[in-house]
Amino acid sequence: MKYHGVTLHRKLENNIGLLIFGILFISSIGGLVQVLPSIFQESLKTATENSHLYSAVELTGRDVYIREGCHVCHSQQIRPLLAEVERYGPYSRADEFVYDRPFMWGSKRTGPDLHRIGGKYSDDWHRVHLIDPRSVINNSIMPAYPWLAEWEATDLGDIQKKMSVLRILGHPYTDEEIAAAPEEIAGLSQLDALIIYLQVLGTGLAEEYR
Amino acid sequence: MISDGREIYHDGVVKRLIQFSIIWAVVGMVVGVWLAAQLIWPGLDFGQFWLTFGRIRPLHTNGIIFGFGVSALMATAFYSVQRTSNVPLFMPRLAWICCYGWQVLVLLGGISLLAGWTSTKEYAELEWPFDIVITILWVCFAVVFFGTIATRRIRSIYVSNWFYGALIIVIAMLHIVNNLALPVSINKSYSLFPGAQDAIVQWWYGHNAVGFLLTGGFLGMLYYFLPKQSGQPIWSYRLSVISFWAFTYTYIWAGPHHLHYNSIPEWVQSLAMVMSLILLAPSWATMINGIMTVSKAWRKLSVDPALKFIVLALAFYGLATFEGPMMAIRSVNIVSHFTDWTIGHVHSGALGWNAMITYGTFYYMVPHMMGRELYSVRLANIHFWLALAGTMLYILAMWGAGVSQGLLWLSIDDIGELSYSFNDVMAAMVPYYALRLVAGLIFLAGTVLMAYNLFRTMYGRHTVAVSPPLIIDELQGTVYKEEPREPSSGNAQEVPA
């Protein structure tokens, strides 16, 4: 054979077992070299002074955010670019997200970034805006969410179980915090929880990085 | 399955999968058009919680990728693997389970998305119970596909099957790793990976779902149906070998280019950028191989709608695989990231490449399997121009929107202040979004025409039954009857004895 490679390939394409093995081997190299090291990189998963552990109410608000698909139109990731820092605030750092499961960085800004939305607007503003966005921003294309004001935060699943599962994954909730959780969210609407979550977003960043 | 002494193939399952695929295409595109309209008239959710943008956008992407796309991939894989292996399907009952199981999965999965069950990970939004069902059905798909190859009566495994094989294997790997999560309840789970790591794993999955499902799988279609429909063997066997392995190796590295300037290690971003640029080579090698294959049959383009779609798909494949690496350059990505440019890029692939090549294969397969002529070539030609116009307008609208957004957001005036508020930029999007809506409607209209045309071909009373034409296999120098009883098929890599 003139081309050694061609002979080798004849073997692969004549044997389905070899072909499957070849594909599996070749396609896993990238993941092993590029993705796997990140999984073992401590700085991407270790809490620092910038990390904020979500309270029971914030966690519930975050699950409302997830269920409604807010991440479809709003990113939570400020890139280290002048215009972005000016528009949204200090750029996002990896240690701010160690308690984010799943991550909420998003891929599209149909609406503005929300990573540093916490504290920028009043609770009342958020309430009015979420119930009727066009009453505060006349050309907004955000859906209105009036029903969130009527839905109970407790309807969003067993908060104690959620916190226990997260504790297995390494979120340091204490037994007391888990025990007190149902009482904390009792009486709140899902809108309340969502606003409390929004108001804490991006506020964990230590003073020296602001 | 033996019938009056002749080998026949299991095409019933293929036909059913094509029907489901067409239905999902129409449903998925209707939802897409509706989403486009919601971005202009937000009241179009009619005050219903389950119709809000955040819930139906994943319905659109999942319906198109898993309903339309995967059904079409299963159909074409089952169709071509029997013919390139010269045996009927291995475990045909399992193939039927795969076919119906998948449709139930897409239907229930879609409903669960409307109900707000979501893992949030793009193109992997379905929650853990569905992820387990996907894994089981995927294994069934693998058993039927690889089983058919294992029982083949042709020595070499044809190129299209390498790509379908890579689709099955790599998607299985990505799906399992990316969906690792601890369940809390039936509709809620928390990812095993936190924050930045979750992002890296997700885009390793997300980019390669595009890579191995929407690119690799559909390249399997290309390598089977292009030679069949153009009557030409693949131009270069060696180029197909090189591009296949280079593609399989390189694609996996490119994922983190979705996270440029995000909170992940810079070396991961740079590596992803470099590998994305390298990826241009195997992508264009395949495109060139395809274009050269059809180069002896250009005149067929004027009369054959199926071939038109396949060749146009190839052109859009070339465009999208050029644009992708460009957007993966970090300095370009500063502008394009988070904007509608990304949406435009996705659709130049999804409409221009995936949908077009699927339409081409459907226009090829349905008449062949039914032993009838296409109900209307004229309608197919109209569909072709609608599809082309819709795709072009869509891409142009999103380039306009995306580049404007990217540049206006970054714009800073002389005294260092932002030139435009977010609201200013949003207000400027209206004409682009309107154009996109029109483009989507045009593309959808074409798809509806195809659905009508193909269902009339399948069930209409007025179609003429034709005898399969004689086709000459140039490479093997043999003359044989077209399906359903040819001994082998466009197997360009078979060297004549």
Short description:
By secondary structure, chain A is mainly alpha-helical. Chain A has helices spanning 4-14, 16-40, 56-67, 82-88, 123-131, 159-168, 175-185, 190-200.
Q: Which terms summarize this structure?
A:
heterodimer, A: mainly alpha, Cytochrome Bc1 Complex, Chain D, domain 2, 2 domains, 8 helices, B: 497 residues, mainly alpha, Cytochrome C Oxidase, Chain A, two-stranded antiparallel sheet, two-stranded antiparallel ribbon, 15 helices, 6 strands, disordered C terminus
Fold blueprint:
The complex is a heterodimer of chains A (210) and B (497).
Chain A: H1 4-14, H2 16-40, H3 56-67, H4 82-88, H5 123-131, H6 159-168, H7 175-185, H8 190-200
Helix pairs in contact in A: 1-2, 3-8, 5-8, 6-7
Chain B: E1 2-3, E2 6-7, H1 12-38, H2 53-85, H3 92-114, H4 128-150, H5 159-178, E3 181-185, E4 188-191, H6 195-230, H7 237-251, H8 266-278, H9 280-294, H10 305-327, H11 330-336, H12 340-370, H13 377-410, H14 422-427, H15 430-459, E5 470-473, E6 478-481
Helix pairs in contact in B: 1-2, 1-3, 1-15, 2-3, 2-4, 2-6, 2-12, 3-4, 4-5, 5-6, 5-7, 6-9, 6-10, 6-12, 7-9, 9-10, 10-12, 10-13, 12-13, 12-15, 13-15
Describe this entry's structure for a reader.
The complex is a heterodimer of chains A (210) and B (497). Chain A is mainly α and 210 residues long. Chain A has 2 domains: 4-40; 50-209, Orthogonal Bundle (Cytochrome Bc1 Complex, Chain D, domain 2), CATH 1.10.760. Chain A contains 8 helices and no strands. In chain A, helix 1 packs across helix 2 (16-40), helix 3 packs across helix 8 (190-200) and helix 6 packs antiparallel against helix 7. The termini of chain A are far apart. The mean pLDDT of chain A is 94. Chain B contains 15 helices and 6 strands. Chain B has helices at 12-38, 53-85, 92-114, 128-150, 159-178, 195-230, 237-251, 266-278, 280-294, 305-327, 330-336, 340-370, 377-410, 422-427, 430-459, and strands at 2-3, 6-7, 181-185, 188-191, 470-473, 478-481. Chain B is globular. In chain B, 56% of the residues are buried. Chain B has a two-stranded antiparallel sheet with strand order 1-2. In chain B, helix 6 packs antiparallel against helix 10 and helix 10 (305-327) runs parallel beside helix 13 (377-410). In chain B, a hairpin with a 2-residue loop joins strand 3 and strand 4. In chain B, 68% of the residues lie in helices and 4% in strands. Chain B has a single domain (12-479), classed as Cytochrome C Oxidase, Chain A. By secondary structure, chain B is mainly α. Chains A and B meet through helix 1, helix 2, helix 3, helix 4 and helix 6 of A and helix 2, helix 4, helix 5, strand 3 and strand 4 of B.
